[in-house]
Design brief:
heterodimer; A: about 220 residues; alpha/beta; Rossmann fold; four-stranded antiparallel beta sheet; about 35% helix; B: about 325 residues; alpha+beta
Chain lengths: ~220, ~325
């Protein structure tokens, strides 16, 4: 589903942040992406999400060479990818429900076709009573869950999560991990970037370890 | 994902079956009912986040200036065309007095000669008193023309649409009176035409400057709005929205603001022209008022003029939308 071949990335004229990355993310797979702070985890996630282009090497996503994609094609591919960012990126003028329903709205679907689905998911992540709340009044954990719900609502083929349990207590962290595991079981490939060893120890999955710009894979 | 596809047990998520329902995060409360207000009510781009009032004001001012310019050019053109047709419909003949000839007899002979020329409707010789009146502003009243070599003036009205053979007319006139000369006002008309042309060119120049200033102002306002809404654009990109989708969301706002500004600016300009006749009347009798009346006539626009101003307001609104769209796509290219 995702294939990197000798990929390198540098910002401007600076040193290479990522060097000679060659790996694949198969469909239905689950992996943790880890490494020390500043190792390039977020940069690698941005490469996977197509918000960065590699300085060199080949990135193939869903059978497409990303260097040949137009902006419209990139937008189409992103519809198959869900992303959870560290800073949540919820829209403050929209309610929790509207934020989570946003991917369907952008797809142009009728609200009646997805309303129940969104409400069910919000209840499932414990935000059933916060559907009409605006993000500024949500707690960090609630924002985190809303961001995750938005990323998974359209059941993407690939889910990328950057420190998804960074703002929640261990119990909730475990539950969110279970959400990702269940999503994976239903067919979504999952990449969770984290340096939380406790979280990784809870689930036996492939580990992609970034160190000094290079990637080491532990199956 | 199908409706109802999200399900877990109270102890956590154990399966993704499509039939079991339960919260992933059990908050220890009764399962909430579906809230009535959980609907898409908010616009994707919040209206308040667009720097609306400033843009409306800019477009309104620009439309007003453009409308005033266009209206003035239309007034001057209409007045000039009126003058030209009036002047072109007359021919002036001067019979200069000489000691050896009787100027009154010459004037009568010239009048007869001109009357027989085809295309001439009427010939009116100015009497001595009328000639004295014409010279009054320069020479004062109580003038005795007997003491001065003042030419006699005859005015011939030309049939509208007919072409006068000026050479033949000149020959006839000089046969009747060798000291007579014919003036068809061509030089004056040419000068009028040049002046009107210059006014129109200046008006178009000002109009172009106003339109360029509008495009620049709108582009800056659009960039400002996009910068303020950058987080929204980024999130829309995250959820797979293409540039066209995002641009359309913003474009609606800018088109509405452009139309609002165009209607306000164009409307005020139309009101100004509508009341201009009354305003001109306040100044009638004053030297300035009389000069303006001489230059611009009644100061009132024809219905076609108002139509042009309305079309212009719509064009400026369209230019606003076009400039916004262009800037939007340029800005979206910079936002990943």
């Amino acid at each position: 589903m995702v294939r990197f071949e000798n990929v390198g990335l540098r910002y401007g004229l600076g040193p290479e942040i990522l060097r000679d990355l060659s790996f694949a993310i198969p469909a239905h797979s689950f992996q943790f992406l880890t490494g020390p702070s500043g190792a390039g985890k977020t940069s690698l996630l941005r490469l996977l999400f197509l918000s960065l282009r590699p300085t060199r090497g080949l990135v193939n996503l869903f059978g497409n060479d990303v260097s040949l994609l137009s902006k419209d094609q990139v937008a189409d591919l992103r519809k198959r990818i869900g992303i959870v960012l560290q800073d949540f990126r919820l829209l403050d003028h929209m309610t929790t429900y509207e934020n989570v329903a946003l991917p369907f709205r952008v797809m142009g679907r009728e609200e009646s076709s997805y309303r129940k689905e969104v409400i069910d998911l919000l209840k499932w992540v414990g935000l059933g009573e916060r559907m009409d709340a605006l993000p500024p009044v949500l707690s960090g954990g609630e924002k985190q869950r809303a961001a995750i719900a938005r990323a998974v609502i359209s059941r993407p083929l690939l889910l990328l999560a950057d420190e998804p349990t960074g703002n929640v207590d261990p119990t909730l962290g475990r539950r969110l991990l279970r959400l990702f595991i269940e999503l994976n079981k239903s067919g979504t490939a999952v990449v969770i970037a984290t340096h939380d060893m406790t979280l990784m120890d809870q689930y036996d999955a492939r580990r992609l370890v970034l160190h000094e710009g290079r990637l080491h894979i532990y199956e | 994902m199908t409706p109802g596809g999200w399900c877990c047990t109270r102890d956590g998520c154990t399966s993704m079956s499509r039939t079991d329902h339960g919260p992933l995060v059990d908050l220890g409360r009764e399962r909430p009912q579906v809230p009535a207000r959980a609907r898409n009510m908010s616009p994707i781009v919040p209206r308040g986040s667009i720097v609306g009032s400033a843009l409306v004001a800019v477009v309104a001012i620009m439309t007003f200036l453009a409308s005033i310019t266009t209206g003035t050019v239309l007034l001057v053109s209409a007045s000039a065309a009126e003058w030209q047709s009036e002047v072109a419909s007359e021919i002036t003949i001067q019979v200069r007095p000489t000691p050896s000839r009787d100027v009154d007899r010459d004037a009568t002979a010239v009048a007869e000669a001109v009357r027989t020329q085809s295309g001439i409707l009427e010939v009116r010789p100015f009497s001595r008193e009328e000639s004295a009146k014409l010279l009054e502003p320069w020479l004062g009243s109580g003038l005795s023309l007997d003491d001065l070599p003042v030419p006699r003036v005859l005015v011939a009205r030309v049939q509208p649409g007919s072409t006068i053979d000026l050479e033949m007319l000149r020959r006839r006139v000089t046969q009747a009176a060798p000291t007579a000369s014919v003036d068809d006002h061509r030089a004056w008309i040419e000068r009028m035409r040049s002046m009107t042309g210059a006014t129109v060119v200046a008006g178009i120049g000002i109009l172009m400057l106003v339109i360029v200033a509008t495009i620049i102002s709108v582009s800056f306002a659009t960039r400002g709005a996009m910068a303020a809404n950058r987080p929204i654009v980024e999130v829309l990109h995250f959820v797979g929205a293409g540039d066209r989708y995002i641009a359309n969301r913003f474009l609606r706002h800018f088109l509405r603001l452009g139309l609002e500004g165009g209607v306000i600016g164009g409307g005020i300009a139309m009101l100004v022209f509508g009341f201009s006749e009354s305003i001109a009347n306040w100044f009638s009798g004053t030297p300035v008022g009389d000069q303006f009346a001489a230059l611009l006539g009644t100061f009132s626009l024809r219905p076609s003029g108002y139509l042009i101003l309305a079309v212009q307001a719509v064009v400026i609104a369209a230019i606003t939308a076009w400039a916004s769209r262009r800037t939007l796509f340029a800005t979206l290219n910079d936002i990943e």
